[in-house]
Amino acid sequence: MIKHTFGLAVLVLACAGTLTMLPTSHARASEATVKCDLVYSLSGWSLIYKHAEGHGTISCNNGQHANVKITVVGGGLTAGKYHIDNGKGEISNVHGIDEVFGDYAQAGADAGVVKSSQAQVLTKGTVSLALAGTGEGFNLGISAGKFTISRR
């Protein structure tokens, strides 16, 4: 269990390190001081094509909050069926909750049997979304696609 958690932490940090090499607008990103948290549940399946749907709540440190719908579509070398309950996400580099909504580029690694785990870092321009969650099911693979957050 500890090795598995440590492996997910290393994956998230590696993805975050890769994102720091991407060009960003320093003036706009440095002005963005609002931080938002996402709590979500997600269930889906994959067999080369990946599809998942879920819902959640976003709360920002400026008092804004919203109920959201989450949709994930994509593809890759994946297979499985899973659900994530009480997943956590941290959204940074935003000025307000309106910047949270939209499509994020997704790339991630999933692994698990019975206890399923998810760790990903997603981007939408200068906005970053770091996700972590555990659940049940079976899944294995590496995928890329689109992670969409919309108002519910």
Which helices and strands occur, and which strands form pairs?
Layout: H1 2-19, H2 26-31, E1 34-60, E2 65-94, E3 102-124, E4 127-151
Antiparallel strand pairs: 1-2, 2-4, 3-4
Question: How would you describe this protein?
Answer:
- This protein is of the alpha+beta class and 152 residues long.
- The protein has one domain (2-151).
- Helices cover 16% and strands 69% of the residues.
- The protein has helices at 2-19, 26-31; strands spanning 34-60, 65-94, 102-124, 127-151.
- It has a 4-stranded antiparallel sheet with strand order 1-2-4-3.
- A hairpin with a 4-residue loop joins strand 1 (34-60) and strand 2 (65-94).
Strand proportion, as a percent range, falls in over 45%
User: How many distinct folded domains?
Assistant: 1
Count of helical segments?
Answer: 2
**Uncertain residue segments:** 1-29
Helix and strand composition category: alpha+beta
Shape summary: globular
Number of strands: 4
Order of helices and strands: HHEEEE
Q: Which whole number gives the mean pLDDT?
A: 78
Largest sheet: 4 strands, antiparallel
Cα(first) to Cα(last) distance is 35 Å
Q: Which percent bin holds the helix content? A: 10-25%
Q: From the alpha carbons, calculate the radius of gyration and give it in angstroms.
A: 15 Å
Q: Strand sequence of the main sheet, in spatial order?
A: 1-2-4-3
Give a quick set of tags describing it:
152 residues; alpha+beta; four-stranded antiparallel β-sheet; 2 helices; 4 strands; globular; disordered N terminus
